[in-house]
Amino acid sequence: MDFDYVIVGAGLSGITLAERIANELDQKxxxxxxxxxxxxxxxxxxxxxILVQKYGPHIFHTNEKKVYDYLxxxxxxxxxxxRVLSYVDDKLVPMPICIDTLNALYDLDLDENSMKKWIDxxxxxxxxxxxxxxxxLKNAGRDIYNKLFKNYTExxxxxxxxxxxxxxxxxxxxxxxxxxxxxxxxxxxIPKEGFTKMCENMIESDNIHIGLNSDYKDYxxxxxxxxxxxxxxxxxxxxxxxxxxxxxxxxFVTEIIDVDSYQEVAVVxxxxxxxxxxxxxxxxxxxxxxEGRTAIMKEYPGFNGELCYPYPTKEYLDKxxxxxxxxxxxxxxxxxxxxxxxxxxxxxxIVKDALEIFENKIK
Length: 363
Known about the structure:
Distance between the termini: 22 Å
Number of strands: 17
Number of domains: 3
Number of helices: 13
CATH superfamily of the largest domain: NAD(P)-binding Rossmann-like Domain
Structural class: alpha/beta
CATH topology of the largest domain: Rossmann fold
CATH class of the largest domain: Alpha Beta
Strand content: 15-25%
Shape: globular
Radius of gyration: 22 Å
């Protein structure tokens, strides 16, 4: 069979582009995926009757109405606002930092004005913010940094926050109010039947064909197609011409526990545990009514496992720029997604980027 497009990768980026090409342009698409499932890192599946997200907790949140409206064609939503607690000094305190975090952590009774005063008294004067460590010290001070950020960041990234760009921790909001939601976006939720079902609905077209458990390099020379869309690791595409790009990886350990409820909220961070970073309880994400048991997941960061976070140091960002210069020369290849662009994306921005690629480069 001849194809108009071959898409490498069945994650959300590849699936969105496949859906648009198949349904808007009525063209034939082949998706080649290395894993044994679609959906990329938002893949979920049933384990002992409980819907579990294989690659850690994923919550849809966005201020992009266009993205929300687009995905809503393929799923109904469970209204869910994410709340995270951090286990520090034998206490569970809200994250990100808000008034209630400081009150719980230090046994205070702050309001908005007194919180600002407390922060002013404890934060450090830093003229030039050069690292993620500087971000926290300037915004909250040394004790907050030591209790909530220092060890967590070192576990998550394998290096001190002093070695990471300010953008890493700047993604975490800091609030002078009682809003303990993790996200402030207008649209928040979980697909009613799960992310995998949403993805299946997106590619329900006779124009879309999928090959799982397949490395595209084994087949690409045997396929007749007009254009390639690549969403995999960019260093692999160029046969590691400039060396391997580094990713911080995660290993996930899922357990079924014979209790109705394991923890207060869906995600509890453990910044000072020596091994894992957080525990997710999936029933708290999806409101599944399963009696007598629950599913939890612990996350262990490292440099082996699932590729999750591009490593945000100058060495690897500079190396990516070498690959980027090669990408710009390509005439018959479109690059999309976090692995190809070596950039951390929330899922709404993955979809937004894919929709923009379709409108500007394909349609």
